[in-house]
Specification:
This protein is α/β, with parallel strands linked by helices. The chain has twelve helices and 18 strands. The protein has two domains: 250 residues, FAD/NAD(P)-binding domain, CATH 3.50.50.60; 193 residues. Helix 1 runs parallel beside helix 12 and helix 5 crosses helix 12.
């Protein structure tokens, strides 16, 4: 039988792939989505209001399997969802954790939901401080796409009138708790903004989805679709069109090319049968996540592309950026001692944030360039993290934990790295995964500028605790690189085909029918998270594909 040829193949169904599927199917194109693992069933795979004490190993997981648990999102609640058998390696001197969810919807099933727009301060940062290059796009160009995404998925926040954080179209914000009001007051004394975060979580019914019922622990999956994820928000309409076929357990291996070197399809491994299968299309969209997308392109070698498809610039896999994460300060608020405890950690991530306040009026006010943001945490979540700061054991130890329980606070920094020639992804020359696909190899180290942000954030958040009348208990450690899940840059966009992999629409310069719609096209990190920007840029890219499809 003749092979079916689809209009478009989309690799990945997370934020970038999900928006691509939604857009392309609505436009009337036939689409085949390749997804590396299975579909999730919320009734079986999500928390469904279980508490840690309901779990055999208190949610930490079976100690016999502890080597498989590689992050706070990968635990007993989500066992069997995060990938552990897709090999990657690290270069000497590199530490990296790569938490991969290949289930349909990818990491949108479990993400933290912070959804601030990028701004012209981000896009034109190089013009301000002289480092690297500006993005090939302005805020004015992307703003309408942000608005369309916000109206589609629902984002709760307030108008804040800050130049580094453009305002959007918002649902009502989540209410501040007592702990937030105290920290807000302390922040105002030292000139640090303490504001409602922009959260892709519903505070009222929206587009057929119910408002959040504040059960907490959203990063184990939402069983009501009350925050944005691809399976709840984008796939239903795409599948309803009748133009979408999703192939699950289909691990993309490489992109196929025709006699002219253009993309003609994708070879993938069927993880059930271990067989290699080829599927064909007139165009290909890659949205497998930053490192995985680079791996796919680098492994797509042919007579036309001896170093990987669309890699005439030599930049595929280069320019890897990440967010430095770490707890900058811990403490407690004595004024709350003795208050009754109740489940106030309503969204599991924070409802407030400290948006970038550094280097806004002048690009060199601080010892570092650009800036970072901070997420506060506290209140009555699960077992309190401050147990590590309390001396002793036994009865006195437990009594002190209980005494402080409603009062603990901490701050978590999100500091962007700068583009560097030293940080990149290539293919390990000898290691392959269990399916025979050559493994990605990570080269990465924190840069000096980002470490200066870390030190600045530690001092600033210590001062905030003290200004709020709190007791400061110290700082934590920097998390291992890769923890943020916000990698960018490996297929970055720019106008010069000799220096950039993709153009300003995410289309590869070398292969006009090959697009990329994940964060790998972003030239660098900013102080914001990436998901809502992935959605906005994917919408713009795939509408560009639709417009040019007849060609």
């Amino acid at each position: 039988m003749a092979q079916k040829t689809y209009d478009v193949i989309v690799i990945g169904t997370g934020a970038g792939g999900g928006m691509a599927l939604h857009t392309l199917c609505k436009a009337g194109l036939t689409v085949c989505a390749l997804n590396g693992s299975r579909r999730l069933d919320p009734k079986k795979d999500f928390r469904n209001h279980k508490q840690p004490y309901d779990m055999p190993f208190r949610a930490f997981g079976d100690p016999q399997k502890s080597k498989n648990y590689i992050g706070y999102m990968d635990n007993e609640y989500t066992e069997g969802i995060w990938e552990h058998d897709i090999a990657f390696t690290t270069a000497p001197g590199t530490e990296w954790t790569w938490r991969r969810c290949f289930a349909v919807g990818g990491k949108t099933n479990f993400w933290g939901r912070s959804s601030a727009r990028f701004s012209d301060i981000d896009f034109k940062a190089a013009s301000r401080d002289g480092y690297d290059v500006d993005w090939p796009i302005t805020y004015e160009e992307i703003a309408p796409y942000y608005s369309r995404v916000e109206r589609l998925i629902g984002v709760a926040s307030t108008v804040q009138n800050r130049p580094s954080n453009p305002d959007g179209e918002y649902l009502p914000p989540m209410n501040f708790r007592c702990i937030d009001r105290i920290l807000e007051s302390g922040a105002s004394k030292i000139g640090i903004p303490y504001l409602p975060d922009r959260i892709a979580q519903l505070t009222r019914n929206h587009n057929g989805h119910p408002a959040c019922h504040y059960c907490g622990n959203c990063t184990q999956g939402c069983d009501t679709g009350s925050f944005f994820s691809t399976p709840w928000c984008l796939l239903p309409e795409a599948e309803k069109s009748g133009r979408l076929e999703i192939r699950t357990n289909a691990l993309a291996k490489n992109i196929l090319v025709d006699t002219d070197g253009r993309a003609s399809g994708v070879a993938y491994i069927d993880r059930d049968t271990k067989q290699e299968i080829e599927v064909y299309a007139r165009a290909v969209v890659v949205a497998a996540s930053c490192v995985e997308s680079a791996r796919i392109l680098l492994n797509s070698k042919s007579r036309h592309w001896p170093t990987g498809i669309a890699n005439s610039s030599g930049q595929v896999g280069r320019n890897l950026c990440d967010h430095l994460y770490g707890t900058t300060a811990r403490g407690y608020l004595p004024q709350l001692l003795g208050q009754p405890s109740f489940p106030d950690n309503v969204s599991e991530s924070t409802i407030a944030w400290l948006p970038r306040w550094q280097n806004l009026t002048h690009p060199h006010e601080e010892k570092f360039i650009r800036g970072y943001s901070v997420y506060p945490d506290g209140g009555c979540a699960g077992f309190p993290g401050y147990f590590q700061s309390i001396p002793g054991f036994g009865r006195d130890f437990k009594r002190e934990i209980k005494r402080r329980y409603p009062t603990g606070v901490s701050f978590y920094v999100q500091a962007p790295t700068q583009r560097s020639d030293e940080n990149f992804v290539d293919i390990d020359p000898t290691v392959k995964d269990i399916y025979g696909i050559p493994a990605a190899r990570i080269h990465f180290a924190w840069d000096k500028n980002t470490l200066l942000m870390w030190e600045h954030a530690k001092h600033a958040t210590e001062q905030l605790i003290r200004a709020s009348g709190g007791e400061y208990l110290g700082a934590g450690e920097i998390d291992i690189p890769g923890t943020s899940l916000h990698e960018t840059g490996t297929l970055r966009m720019g106008n010069d085909p000799k220096k950039f992999v993709t153009d300003r629409f995410g289309r590869t310069h070398d292969v006009p029918n090959l697009y990329v719609t994940d964060a790998s096209v972003f030239p660098n990190c900013t102080d914001k998270t990436t998901t809502i920007s992935i959605l906005a840029f994917s919408l713009r890219a795939t509408e560009h594909l639709v417009e040019n499809f007849p060609k």
